[in-house]
Design a protein that fits this description.
The complex is a heterodimer of chains A (about 110) and B (about 120). Chain A has about 110 residues and is mostly beta strands. Chain A contains no helices and eleven strands. Chain A is globular and about 35 Å long. Chain B has no helices and eleven strands. In chain B, strands 2, 4, 5, 6, 9, 10 and 11 form a seven-stranded mixed beta sheet that branches. Chain B has a four-stranded antiparallel beta sheet with strand order 1-3-8-7, with no helix packed on it. The chains are: A mainly beta (about 110), B mainly beta (about 120).
């Protein structure tokens, strides 16, 4: 099983600032089968990034993903008020599909 | 609009059974890999099971193997999760989800399952 570890657990920033979220895998995620999701309270998750760096349909370009093998990053270039939420990384390279424990992005 | 709608959640005693259903609309259901993902109260996301487009391959997280069964009926644009021998730790919101491969790009709004005496 591929274990994903996200850091930090909580990130406190202000609107307009840059956010950098990390996801580390316990073994290589082949062909970069790594996705990022955003979840707001009471809502289902929403796909942001897939293939480590491709934005999903309708996702603003302030969201970007990077990384390979075992180290991945989600960057939000300039935070908007609606970006404060919980973010999860997920690997879909092998079964069982696994998620990181999440990073909570909160308003400072 | 692409939509997944879950039903069948509720309160059940430990050891009991429930059957969740998911109905899809707005996309070609038979071309989608489908999955169930759950989220315990205040916790993170946990993938539970998925099923190939034609139902020929199914995968489960270890904690539900032998207790849960995933299935689908493409003629009805529907997916199911039969949950037997429920445990307190199975308490969660269960999301119906899908995508063209193992990547999940579509989610339902979830249905709450509570296993409690």
């Amino acid at each position: 099983e591929i274990v994903l570890t996200q850091s930090p657990g909580t990130l406190s920033l202000s609107p307009g600032e840059r956010a950098t979220l990390s996801c580390r895998a316990s073994q290589s995620v082949g062909k970069n089968f790594l996705a990022w999701y955003q979840q707001k309270p009471g809502q289902a998750p929403r796909l942001l990034i897939y293939g480590a760096s491709s934005r999903a349909t309708g996702i603003p370009d302030r969201f970007s993903g990077s990384g390979s093998e075992t180290d991945f990053t989600l960057t939000i270039s300039r935070l908007e008020p609606e970006d404060f939420a919980v973010y999860y990384c997920q690997q879909y390279a092998s079964s069982p599909i696994t998620f990181g424990q999440g990073t909570r992005l909160e308003i400072k | 609009d692409v939509q997944l709608v879950e039903s069948g959640g509720g309160l059940v005693q430990p050891g009991g059974s429930l059957r969740l259903s998911c109905v899809a609309s707005g996309f070609s259901f038979s071309t989608y890999y489908m999955a169930w993902v759950r989220q315990a109260p205040g916790k993170g996301l946990e993938w539970v099971a998925n099923i190939k487009q034609d139902g020929s391959q199914k995968y489960y997280v270890d904690s539900v193997k032998g207790r849960f069964t995933i299935s689908r009926d493409n003629a009805k644009n529907s997916m199911y999760l039969q949950m037997n021998s429920l445990r307190v730790e199975d308490t969660a919101v269960y999301y119906c989800a899908g995508g063209r491969g193992w990547l999940i790009d579509t989610w339902g709004q979830g249905t709450l399952v509570t296993a409690s005496s």
